[in-house]
Structure formats: structure tokens, C-alpha cells
Amino acid sequence: MIKALHPRKFPMFAARLIAGINLIEPLMFTILKKTKLFSHRSTTNVFVSTLFSALLSALVNFPTYQNHIIGYDRFNSLDLTLLVATRAIDTVFSSELGKIVPTWLVPYGDVVLFTVSSAFIMYSWFFHVERLPPAYHQWITSAANMDHDIYEVLRLIKSKKLVYGEPGPYSDFLGPYFEKYGKDPKDANTTINLPISCEAVHAFKTKSCELHALWRFYRGFKFAFTVYGPLNLLLLLLPKKKKMSQRLLRALTTSVRSSAFLGAFIGIYWYSVCLARTRLFPLLAPKVPRTRYDDTIAPAMGAIMCGLSSLVETPQRRKELALFVAPRGLGTLVSADATTENLQIESIVFSVCLAILVAYSKSKPSTVRGIFGKGLNLVFNIDYYK
């Protein structure tokens, strides 16, 4: 508690940020109201005054917090900025596009957002480790349950250190991997055996890609249920009006559905990789070099298709999932280097996006979706201007 009161840590940064907004905003609102710049449009006065005050407060306070927190971990500052940026973009798009997009298409927008974000994240997990926080990368590795040797050999293929059909220092890289599973290490040589067999990619569980996908689904389901099951059972302790039997059924249903989502995410990924590298794409495009399937096409195919697993979840959960992964997906496209220029750009992006979020949360609270929107509404819902 004492450390949390440090003047440069997040609690004090949030306090200064909110205090600055609440000091400047009434003054700005009064000026706009008296000058009648936006006559007869009280909502516009609220939006503009809040936007200005939040922007100014953030520009003043964020750099101090940023310079302190990056000393612990660069991603502490960057992740916050990405979170605010993606929520601001989502708020603007959902507010404006909702006027022109048919209602029945709106829920599928979250599926698209989740799919695109997941594609960037999973492709970076394979080939651009530096774009993901170490803990985030480790969590994906645990959930995917991919043998480290297979993971590394695909990275070697991507970096051109290993080329199918050509002898080199890594031609027998998978030899120990084959021996571990009681297989002939000669079959691991990529000079004479190409591409790497699906059975080897399947950790020799089965030659069938379909059975392997089901096995991956089961492993992912089991992994997720150990998290969601106890969590939902713990929530049963909270007092509610519904009967215990109804709450228990709901907890079980929610746990199974969420576990099925993660199982489907992993199973679809693995099966899509197999379709792309051996089962389907080589038949459709036989002239494409086999190396190209393993260093780009197959991982990209899996990264894109696995996002469709979000259809297993309810529309409300799809929204939260999409908004959860979107910041990290956006993070794979920006540099994590803490250069002076990058930090200045980050400070401006954070300030502008936070100003947009706060302005919308005051004037149009329903447009800021999810738990984030509810939190902003609780903090900034002041009715003095009414």
C-alpha cells in the first residue's frame, strides 16, 4: 500500500489524470456554453469540453508515469497505450458504423476483430517472438502444447538456415526428436525426407490429421476447464436470487462452452496447418516450393482460421474476447523499442485515445463497450452540466 502511493506509480498517475480532467472540464464547458459556439447542442458542449480537458491532462501526466514504469518493463507502458488505443478505435467505429451496418451483421464484427487479432498474434508467436511480451508468449506455448523441437525447426526454415533438399548444419536437427519417440533418426534428415511428415508434427500420436486435431481439441479443452471450472464454481459463493441448481447448471454450461472455445482454437489451428502443408494446398498449387508451405503459408493459414473458434462463444463473450486480444494484435505491428521518438509517439497516441474514450463515456456512455466502458462511466459520470 505504501509503494502504491509513490508519486509516479499508476494509482497516483490515475488520480492526477482524473483530477486534471475534472478541474479543466467545467471551465471549458462554461466557456463553450457562454460563447454559444455550439448553440442549442448541450451534448456537443459536453463532448468537446471533455475531449479537450482529457487530452490536456493526459499530455501533462502520462510522460511522468511512462518514464517511471518503463524502467521495470517496456510493455507496462506500451500495453496500457495499446489497450486505450484499441478501445478508442472500437468506440468510434461501433458508434459510427452502427448507423450504416445492418443489425444482424454487428455481432459478427467481433468475430472478424478476434480473427484478425489472433492471426497477427499467432503468426508473431511463431516467427516474431520479440513482438510479444515474454509472459504472453509463454502462455500461448503452454496452451498450444507444441513440442519445442517442432517449434524451433519451423523457425529455422523461416530464417533459411534449413532448406528442404539441401544439406546443411541443421539437416539432422530433428534427429534427437525422432529418437525420443523411438523412431529412426535417419527419417528426420530433411535432405532426403521432405517435407517433415505430418506424423512427426503430430508428435507421433497418429498419422491421421483429423484424429490429431481431435486430440489437440481434447488437450486444449482439458487445459481450459482446469481454469474455468474452479473459477465458475467459486462464483457460486456470491449471493444471487437464482436457485443454486440453476446457477450450478449455468456455471457448468459456461465452463464447457469456454473450454470448447479454447479447444476449438487449438484444434482448428493444428488442422489448418496440416491442410495447408500436406493435405490440400500442395494438390491445388503443386508448383509452390514445399519450403514455402512450412515457412509462411501453413502457419499463416492456421493463424487465420483459428479465430473462427470464437463462434462457439456467446455474442457477449465474443465481444469481450475480441476486445481482449485486439490490443495485443495491434502491438505486433508497432515497435517495442523504447526510443525517444517512440515514447513521444506513444504519449500522443495515449492522450488522444484516452480523450476520445472519456468524451464518449460522458456524452454517449453506451458506445464504449464492455467492462472498460462501465468502469469509465462510473468514474466520469458527473451530472453537473445537466
UniProtKB/TrEMBL annotation:
Transmembrane segments: 12-32, 44-63, 105-126, 220-238, 259-280
UniProt keyword Transmembrane helix, yes or no: yes
Superkingdom as given in the UniProt entry: Eukaryota
Sorted UniProt keywords: Membrane, Transmembrane, Transmembrane helix
Keyword Membrane (UniProt): yes
Protein name in the entry: Transmembrane protein 135 N-terminal domain-containing protein
Lineage of the organism: Eukaryota, Fungi, Dikarya, Ascomycota, Saccharomycotina
